[in-house]
Amino acid sequence: MEQRAADELILSVAAGDMHALEALYSGMYREIYGYLLSMVGDPHAAEDLAQDTFLRVYKYAPKFVPSGYGKSWVYKIAGRLALTYRAKNSVPTEELPETLADSHSAEDRVLDAQLVTQAMARLSEDERQVVSLHAVSGLPLREIAELLRIPLGTVKWRHAEAIKKLKVMLGGNF
Amino acid sequence: MLTENSDLFEKKLYESIHAAADTPIPPFDALAARIVANEPTESYEQFFGGEDEYPLTADAAAVPKKSGPAWYKTLGIAAAAVAVFVVGSGLVMVLLAGSMRCGSAGPMNDKAAYEETAQVAECDDAFYDAEQGAEDSAKTNRVSDSDLQKNDTEDSSQQ
Which of the two residues, A167 and B50, has the higher pLDDT score? Predict the structure, then answer.
């Protein structure tokens, strides 16, 4: 979903349009869920937090100021919820398994995803956020810099550091 | 086996992250029901802590930057200022020292130059006087010789 499309939907939600909220929900749910999953590491918690995100989008829509960054606003709400969740719950950092069967079966792909989720939980919040946004929502680094309101160089550096760490953690399993 | 190709690793990494996020979307009705129940109770300002800028991570919110461009920039500017001051002072001192040797600047150097000139002038005068004296003496001697010769001639004619 484009930023400006999200802007228009949020403005419609602010006017009480539930269809607009449903369109926003179905258009952004998967990427918000994926982002939250990367941030908190627990699928059930990510599901609850994703619902909370859209609940707050509906409640806070009258406060939204359209500026071409509607998606960023939704991500901000999701990020705040993830932050609160992590502050209240210690995210377990399990030991990663030593080896992984070298196979391309669906089961191994799922296992890969679980390993990645665990490895992502070990990154710093800033690094995890950049990788999540880039991988899940497909946002280019430049848009991530605009979303987080930080320099592009900082985003690139965090991304490079995160990939380096993940390579060390997962290199034997990829 | 470690992969040497970072693009390949990133591709596989993102595929895994996508796979983890690939989940069926819960029905919208559940969300609608919670809206009807007037959830949540938190206000916008309470949710974002009343801040104008809403940091997205705990790192951005709580942890002060240990180092960054501003710190390096300040240090760089200070170092540049010190370097300019040192080099500039050195140049000024070199110029001053040079001008003292040449005698082309300063009241003391003018005085020294004047005295030196006066000494030279006195020497010149003395030398002139000496020369003149010698010349005068030479003239007197020549006159005496000529007179002697003249006297000799007169004596000879008288005899």
Answer: A167
